[in-house]
Design brief:
The protein has 652 residues and is α/β, with parallel strands linked by helices. Helix content is 55%, strand content 7%. The protein binds zinc ion.
Length: 652
Amino acid sequence: MNKAIEPKNMDTKVLPGDNFYEYVNGGWIKEHPVPAEYSQYGAFTILYEENQKKLRSLIKKVSAEENAPKGSVAQKIRDFYNSGMDTVSIEKMGIKPIEEELHKISKLQNKKEVVAYMATMQRRGVSPLFYFFADADQRNSSMEIANLYQGGLGLPDVDYYLATDEGSKKLRDAYVKHLTKMFILKGENKDIAAKKAAQVIAFETKLAQVSFTRVEQRNPIKNYNKMSLAALKDTVPGYDWDIFFKTLGLKNPGDINVGQLRFFKGLNKLMEETDMDTWKAYLTWNLMDASANYLSKDFVKQNFDFYGKTLSGQPKMQPRWKRVLGVVSGGLGEALGQLYVEEYFPASSKERMVALVNNLRTAFGQRIEKLDWMTDETKTKALEKLDAITVKIGYPDKWRDYSKLEIVPGSYFDNIIAVREFGFNRKLNKIGKPVDKAEWGMTPQTVNAYYNPSNNEIVFPAAILQPPFFNPEADDAVNYGAIGVVIGHEMTHGFDDQGRQYDKVGNLNDWWTEADAKAFKEKTDKLVALYNNYEVLDSLHVNGKLTLGENIADLGGLNISYQAYQNSLHGKTPAPIDGLTADQRFYMGYAQVWRQSIRPKAMAQRLKTDVHSPGEARVNIPPFNIDAFIKAFNVKEGNKLYIPKDKRAYIW
Ligand SMILES: [Zn+2]
């Protein structure tokens, strides 16, 4: 049996106070360079990999049922997977699956036709310019409304288009090369391909100029602009919304949330000044980009060369079965998820989680009552919100109905389109109806967890309830440090800089006194500064504002779970294990969850795009704000990670 904390994974030559991440994980990191088919590798990746093997064996079992009745879930999983593995047919088809659509784009005559065509693309899973979907109304969270959200960029972030440093310029050149090669694959000659590539990046740069940054996207108030269709037409008259909604088949979209006003107002000018040639190049590119992975291998390879190799530094593609499995697990997520939990998720795990979550909730409540910076008035509201959090564990009570999704043997691409249209219609049908609060936003086989502010709920899919997160054989200290902190982390999201703006029923609705809000801001500013100062790669820093919500959640998670663990001990002190005290093992259980090897290119991309701090910072900053940790590892002034008391963040 593996120990919950393996001494060989540590690097005891490093002092915990100098680099806690290395101290706990140094040995592991040395032994686990990133495998060629990954851009990063850690606890999440390992579970993901094990999961893929489990899912494949489930698919194999299902595939053996040759007589699965047409229309059954088994038939759909089998035929979808097999169609994706049928490379002979896929190669023979080449670009054929998208030829008809490419032809339609080439025949577009005017802007009205462009808008109508863009609406049909939305239906088929391609989102030129922006995303369109149903979501809970952020101020009336029991109802679904239509949402428009900025998009339409081929590079991962606005910054890639606008930054002027050498590295960013190089990446833009590489992107233009990629665009050119894709147009050549489509059959254009070199000169035309280069011209179209130039048109695409110029157009996308204009989109980037009016787009919100990722930090701006974290402000829920700024991203909430609900208006009627008439008001939308007034605000963005340059875009023909009547044609757009009519083509979608949505006669009355009701009120619409226009996520980023600056972006959508920017479309006015863009619609006016863009010529038909550029529109055709841009839409052709959007179609090819969204289709490449499901076409013949020249497309798959070119797509990987840019998005995998160049952007993330990943040398090798994953084997085909893993990629296809990922697609099936996405498209038929809950169908596969149902088989997954039947086989791999013990009922006992669910019971233990329910008990743990209750302990965490109690501990969080105790901490709120004791906060020295919050008035009683706000505390009462905070406790009400904490009490109201809904908890979902393992898998949904009610499984998604796939009966309207038709999957056929043979064409992988047709199946992809069927899955996308099914998903789109599902969402479209929600508009104007009550939110189905029983629904899940992740499949059970996803190694992750989430907090959803508009439902005020925390959700833990079955797949995260495994070691090193949740280890039935580990001592309590380690489990509270790992899954306990994950639970506390998700609960804290309801009280981070975004989540605190939502009330107990999930509406954007300020329940804070002014003084409490000010005190909170002062405290979280300290956290912003600590992360801004943290250097990850040479000269690259964490973005403290982009990652603030996650960082508040990490710090809160640690504090709350530690309190819950103390409660569980009833004043007793457990004997050390392998020379490590219970308090030390608690923090080490946390630290080993975040061990990770990562390629520099992937790190650089993450620092720009990910709201989570890199694993290293998640381990090397939050604990150093906590007195119990400082005591447990005897951290002293002069240690590299030591934070003077007045700079520490004491929040939840
Ligand atoms: Zn989080």
